[in-house]
Amino acid sequence: MAGGITETGEPYSAFVGLVYMFNLIVGTGALTMPKAFATAGWVVSLALISFLGFMSYMTTTFVIEAMAAANAQLRWKRREQEEIDDSDSTSEYSDDDVMGRGRSEPETKPILSVQRSGGHADHFDIVERVEMGQMASMFFNKVGVNMFYICIIVYLYGDLAIYAAAVPISLMEVACGNHSCSAGSVKYNDTDPCWGSVTRKDAYRVFLSVFTVLLGPFTFFSAQKTKYLQILTSFMRWIAFTMMIILALIRIGKGTGEGHPPVASLSGVPNLFGVCVYSFMCQHSLPSLVTPISEKKHVGTLVLADYILILGFYVLLSFTAIFCFDSSLLHDMYTLNFTDNCDVLDIPVLRYFLGLFPVFTISTNFPIIAVTLRNNWKTLFHRDGGTYPWVVDRVVFPLITLVPPIVVAFCTHNLESLVGITGSYAGTGIQYIIPACLVYYGRRHLEPVVGRDAINKHQSPFRHAFWVWFVLLWAAFCLMFVTANIILTDTRK
């Protein structure tokens, strides 16, 4: 995520790319969405998630356009370097030739002219994987680059805190919950006993400590998600999501659903906003997803189809949840509603599978995100030609990566708030502000090089400057709205 130009990886079809994007976007955020829907009301939730899905799609097209612009700039610089090398290699033979060449080919000759005369690939082809950090360093000044990395780091801290809380919560609910068929309407408190004198909160912290001891050490090394592990977690995820939707639909179809969600409740909107932004997050991983696609001609159409499918899936999952379960009994982690309610699911093995499902999928992601965050810290403080002492590189950076999210998870396990705050602040930066700035400065940066007649074939459908400013104004409004709500909520307490 922080890195520069990397290998594109094994190419795959556009359809496989669509599936990968679907799997990337639909993650932990989806499990916190039903409670956010119930809190904000179903009409408000439907309207807001549809609008935020549209906004996320728009900024996704911005990032793809910026990726094409970055590829064009890299080709321009490479061509410039080749001309310099050619000039150096011929200077020993004929000074007159060099002078003639210098007069006939200006230094800022647009690459479009090469594109027309050279007969090779379009300069806007996305063939090199240029990560967002590299794009930021190409198009932003130093302050902009630092702000980019700070935003990414804050988002990843939030991600790790959510993951660090989600796993112990699931383990606590399975270990401490009353799995008898009469427990579906019971609302537990943190101070309720789990094992004898051990409270549920104590049990949560025990599981969090075990989680930290088992997965924390991976932060000090390299971790990479293998293809087969990705297939396994995706398979488990789809079994779990499909089960939850079908079971809720069956209960609603029988007329035994207990959900009576409000039409609208504005007090739940700020948190719903954060959850929805978090749940549509994919912009930071687009270079890894889009670049290996072998045929990119229809990538824009496929991305649109992906967003429509994801929006439909989120609406289906959340609506079945809020009409199946009493809103006051919905858990932060939706899977937990199936572990103690035999009216919905009376097969113990499947109840345990759904209860423990987040443990398996999240545990595989935690080390990867931790290593990504550690590498971002290193990049932020990196100086050209400098290396870090062993202690700083192998001890300090991993510790500042691991300790803060674990401390946050020890202090609170309110997943809905963690997701809401992460999505509202860092998520707004990554999903709205950074893509809008990348496409804006990318266009300005390339115009003198490629000329006004050049057409970026991956140009966003929202090519007018109005849309860039609309996204930035929307992001500013959202940040002010969420901050004002937090302040007003705290003053009422």
From TrEMBL:
Which intervals hold domain Amino acid transporter transmembrane?
13-67, 134-442
Q: Where in the cell is it found?
A: Membrane
Entry keyword Transmembrane helix: yes
- Stretches the record annotates as Disordered: 80-117
Write out the entry's keywords from A to Z. Glycoprotein, Membrane, Transmembrane, Transmembrane helix
Q: What is its main location?
A: membrane
Membrane topology (UniProt): Multi-pass membrane protein
How is this protein annotated for GO cellular component?
Answer: membrane
InterPro entries named in the record: AA_transpt_TM
Spans traversing the lipid bilayer? 12-31, 43-70, 139-158, 203-223, 235-252, 302-329, 349-373, 466-488
Q: Which Pfam families match?
A: Aa_trans (PF01490)
Q: Which domain of life is it from?
A: Eukaryota
Q: Where is there biased composition of kind Basic and acidic residues?
A: 98-108
Positions with biased composition (Acidic residues): 82-97
Could you say which protein family the record assigns here? Answer: Belongs to the TMEM104 family.
PANTHER family given in the database record? TRANSMEMBRANE PROTEIN 104, TRANSMEMBRANE PROTEIN 104-RELATED
Q: What is this protein called?
A: Transmembrane protein 104
Q: Which organism is it from?
A: Seriola lalandi dorsalis
Taxonomic lineage:
Eukaryota, Metazoa, Chordata, Craniata, Vertebrata
